[in-house]
Predict the structure of Ig-like domain-containing protein.
Amino acid sequence: MLHIFITVTLCLKVYRGEGALLHQTPAQQFAAAGDLVETFCSSSACVVDTDLLRWFMKKDSEVIALNTSCKAGPGCRVTTRRASNGDCGLTIRGVQPVDSGVYYCAEYSSNALEFSNGSLLTVRDNSTQNTTVTVMGPSVSGSALDSKGTLTFVCLVRGLSSPALRVQWFFSGHLAEGGAPSSWIEGQKGGDGESYSATSWLAVPAETWRSGAVCACAAQL
C-alpha cells in the first residue's frame, strides 16, 4: 500500500480561556489535486458573525494566517460560510499538494487566541496514481531462521514522477529502529523514459522475522 503523507509535529501554544471550547471536524481528510474540501468549526462566534473566527494553517513548523476576506466569485479560492447547523465552514477550492497541512479555527477569549483541535488535510498529487509499492520478504531456510544473523527485506517503488523519495519501514505498525537512514535508496528512469523506480533494502534481525511481525514500507514523496 502506498502511503503519501506529511508528518506534522504540533507545537502551537493553545490558550484556553473561559469561553467555549472550539471543536473542528473532520479530524482528518484526504483529497486529490483539484478537489473542493471543507472543514467546520463549532463556535458561538459563528452565530454572531463568521468573520469573528480566524483560520490558520500549520505546515511543518510554520503557522500561516489565512486570508478569508474574499467572499464570492471565481477568484475566491479560500472562503468561509455558515453551515446549516450554525457551524463556521472553511472552503478551499482546487486544492493542491501545497495545501496539505493542519487547519485550525481560532477565536479570542479573555484577550487570548483559543485554537481548535485542528483538521489534517492531505492532498494527493495526481501524478502518483500509477505508483506502486511492493515489499519482498527474504527467502529463508530453516537454518537461517534459527540463526542469530540478519535477514534482508526489499521495498520496490515503481511509477514515480520524481526520484525524490523517502522510505520508512514498519514492523507491526511500529517504525523500524533507525528508520529510513538504515536503508539504501536508488532512483532511476523507468523503461518508458518518464517514470522513476526506487529500491530500498533493510536488514533486520532473524528474531524479528521469527516473532511473526508484519512488515510494511511507506513511500513519502
About this structure: Residues 142-146 form the longest helix (5 residues).
